[in-house]
Design goal:
alpha/beta, about 180 residues, 6 helices, single chain, five-stranded parallel sheet
């Protein structure tokens, strides 16, 4: 599962760069794209950054893979603001706090810099579009899948799958009308 997520991320990043870079027949080596990750120490983001950097090299444009060294939304916002000050050609952003990032994203777009959010969104902002999973819909799909009876041959055997199913059941129980809990 982890490998498929990494592959999805790399493919998404390549598609992103293609969309950024396909607006003409040639691209200037002066074009500058920035990927602002949520935490540079997380292997998931390191893999995504490697894909971003490789795509930029293939298109012969400048790029930076930036972000905080640990989970710090305010530091990440400062990195985004610096990319805007440097007049990036385009910005790919993993949003850690939609409310905190809204103004910075809107300022980038107002300055003519397209911003695409990745993995997590800031839907109230003026970002160009979002690449990622609709986690609410994924949860509904997981719950619906779990609600269907499984035959013995399709029941999960791995402990991680059993833990996910247990958490889905707990979530469904907590969100039942009798409990009226707003969170799982």
């Amino acid at each position: 599962m982890l490998l498929s997520r990494k592959v999805f991320c790399c493919v998404s990043l390549a598609a992103l760069l293609l969309s950024f870079l396909s607006c003409g027949s040639a691209h200037s080596s002066e074009e500058y794209y920035v990927f602002v990750a949520a935490n540079l120490q997380v292997p998931y983001w390191q893999t995504a950054g490697a894909g971003f950097t490789k795509a930029a090299e293939q298109f012969k444009v400048r790029s930076d893979f930036l972000g905080p060294q640990n989970y710090d939304p305010k530091d990440q916002r400062a990195v985004l603001d610096q990319a805007v000050q440097k007049r990036a050609t385009g910005i790919l952003l993993a949003v850690t706090d939609p409310a905190l990032f809204k103004d910075s994203i809107d300022k980038a777009v107002a300055a003519g810099i397209p911003v695409i959010t990745l993995d997590s969104d800031a839907p109230a902002s003026k970002r160009l579009f979002f690449i990622g999973t609709n986690n609410y819909q994924a949860g509904l799909a997981g719950g619906a899948f779990r609600a269907t009876p499984a035959s013995p041959s399709t029941r999960p055997h791995r402990s991680s799958a059993r833990r996910r199913i247990k958490s889905m059941r707990l979530c469904a129980w907590r969100r039942s009308p009798a409990k009226k809990s707003p969170v799982c």
